Amino acid sequence: MKKQYSYLELELQKLGLNRNEAKIYLATLELGQSSVQNLANKTSMSRPTVYRTLESLQKKELIEKLDRKKGRSVTPKSPDELLSILRIQKRKVDEQEREFTRIISLLKTEHYISNKKPFEIFEGENGKKFILNELTETHAKKISVIFGKENVLAEKDLLPIFEKIQKRLGKIDVQEIFVEEFKEDTAEYIKKKNIYGKSFFGTLVIAHKVFYFHENQIFSIEEEFLTKLIKSLFDLSWTE
Length: 240
Description:
The chain is an alpha/beta fold. The chain has helices at 2-14, 19-31, 36-43, 47-59, 82-107, 110-113, 124-136, 155-169, 224-239, and strands at 119-123, 142-147, 173-178, 190-194, 202-206, 209-214, 217-221.
């Protein structure tokens, strides 16, 4: 039963629930109508943690209303309600994909291509070498990466460089977003997140520079407005 619970917790986390939310929701499904104390006993969580988690689940419309003052019992809603979370996630992914596609289209316009300094295009291995060199020499302590399905660069290409930067700068913060499964066994300074759904373009953000990977091309961007916009989109994807 524990193995089954562990598996279901992971599946619920893929849908957007955090670990505590997944545990509490599964407990409510098993217990049915139950008190906060029963849920605390079932999940080995403190009552304050259970209350906070139930309030979060209530916002996601996965449990009936919680009356904290009266100590009212909690009733789970049908697992069918999980579809609403998936639909919300899908809308967000669709919106982000449209925004990324719009930016790519903007980059391909004659205005930006004619301006070589803020915007350049590289092909294949030359582009890969250029990016790795830029990353190796960076003094940025925060680096953000999206690994899309069509990626010129793989995580294995970047890990040795991250280690060199870490040794040189002392401390760095790396955020990696994957559209597919990833391995957990990496350095502590690397934080990872999955975004399931439609694929994004591969993206690397270093300080004031952004690199887009699309098919066999790499777009190097230093134009201020676009770099700020892309950083904002990454932050939105990371925090959702």
